[in-house]
Every structure is written in structure tokens, then in C-alpha cells.
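Per reviewer request, we include the raw input and output of the structure prediction for the construct analysed in the revised manuscript.
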Amino acid sequence: MGAFDIFKISASGMKAQRKRMDIVASNLANVQTTSTEEGGAYRKKDVVFKAVDVSDDKTFSGTLSKKVEGVEVEDVKESDKPFQMVYNPSHPDANSEGYVTFPNVNLMEEMTDMTAAARAYEANVNVLNTTKDMFLKTLELIK
């Protein structure tokens, strides 16, 4: 692994966590959305990550000898959790029995997911800063 691969790995992690936070923010913003353009209540979205090769050496021998993996968002999937049914006959989106279909978004799960994404992002920032500091110290030793 090359010295600059650390930057690529951390950057890929930061990019993936930023997307995760965007999706969580969307879920939180729509926690009460009972009617969407597609019809029905808002459906929670989840991010799916996958490992990707971020090394510069894309030759066959380079792939065999060293594989440097980062992360990226593979897909954003809608959750298959059931919707919440709340009895509120005065709501404009209530069905004939008086129940309103609310999104399948759990506020506590989303806040926990946002905290985890923020911590993962922060960890990648710390890796970048530590690596930068090591490079600077190495340059000072060379002087």
C-alpha cells in the first residue's frame, strides 16, 4: 500500500458517510409525510455500502500483490418495514376506517444512525490529519 492510499481510503469513507447522513436527514425530514408524489406514505431509505479498490495499480500483478479497498455507496434501498397505522379520522389522509398511514421511520433509529455516521466521518478526518502530521514530521526529519 502506498502512502497516499491512506488519503484515498479515508476520502472514500468520508464521501460514503456524507451520503449516509444525507439519507438519514431525508428520513428525518419526512417522518410525518403521509402523502408522496408516488402515492402513499414516505418509505424509509437505507444506504448499502460496498468495498471498492482505490489503488492506482490496476494491472493484474498489481491486483494480486496489493489490493487497497475503500468504500462507496452501492445502492439506496427503500425499507420493507411495515408502515405505522394511527387512528385519526380528522386527518386529510385518513382511510375510510379513520386510520392514517405514517412512514416507517423510527426517530430513535435515525438519530442513532446519524450519530454513527458522524462518528465514522470524524474518524476518517482524524486519520487524514494524523497521516498529514506524520508526513510533516517526516519532512522535518529530512531537513
